[in-house]
Design goal:
The protein is an all-alpha fold and 177 residues long. The protein contains 7 helices and 2 strands; from the N terminus they run αααααααββ.
Length: 177
């Protein structure tokens, strides 16, 4: 079981961190901070480069902590928070990723929550430091805190897209973000 948790943590955490690196640099196929900033603006976020930097840093930090199994409830809360924002932004596109849907962020939220609930396993920084098991109240607080932080971030930084209208009202197929 510990080896399975190690593999799950490493793959998930490094993918989350990699997404953060892509948002703020030219590494790992990223297109630089200017492009990350434009992506956030296109998705309706305020804050410009600061928003892209905060999202990238949140993904890099939570991903690396999750991969290492270090401060796992906090790492999971961070990953859940940034992926909840992504999920809410992509929600209007439906579930499936081939339609730019929220499938992938949802999978990452569920994996981070599951890792918080199971713990990182013995092959982890938390295990090596004797921090396991985490107090039972901390895990649901971290999961709920991550979701709430993501929803609050979306509410504070996202501006609704203006509805496209015709003389008779919204155009067919339009959906507000």
């Amino acid at each position: 079981m510990d080896t399975g948790l190690l593999i799950l943590r490493m793959v998930t955490g490094l993918l989350i961190a990699g997404h953060g690196v892509q948002k703020v640099s030219f590494r790992l196929g990223g297109t630089g901070l200017a492009s990350g900033t434009e992506e956030f603006r296109h998705d309706g976020f305020r804050g410009g480069a600061l928003t892209a930097l905060a999202a990238g840093a949140g993904q890099i930090g939570s991903g690396l902590l999750l991969a290492a199994g270090a401060l796992t409830p906090l790492a999971a809360a961070g990953a859940i928070g940034v992926m909840t924002v992504a999920l809410t932004v992509k929600r209007h596109n439906g579930l499936w990723v081939q339609n730019d849907g929220y499938e992938y962020p949802l999978v990452l939220v569920v994996i981070a929550a599951a890792l918080a609930l199971t713990g990182p396993g013995r092959h982890s920084v938390d295990g090596a430091l004797g921090l396991l098991p985490w107090p039972s109240w901390l895990v649901p607080a971290a999961v709920a805190g991550g979701v709430l932080a993501g929803l609050a971030t979306r509410a504070l930084l996202h501006r609704p897209m203006p509805a496209t209208t015709s003389a008779t009202g919204p155009l067919e197929g339009d959906s507000p973000r």
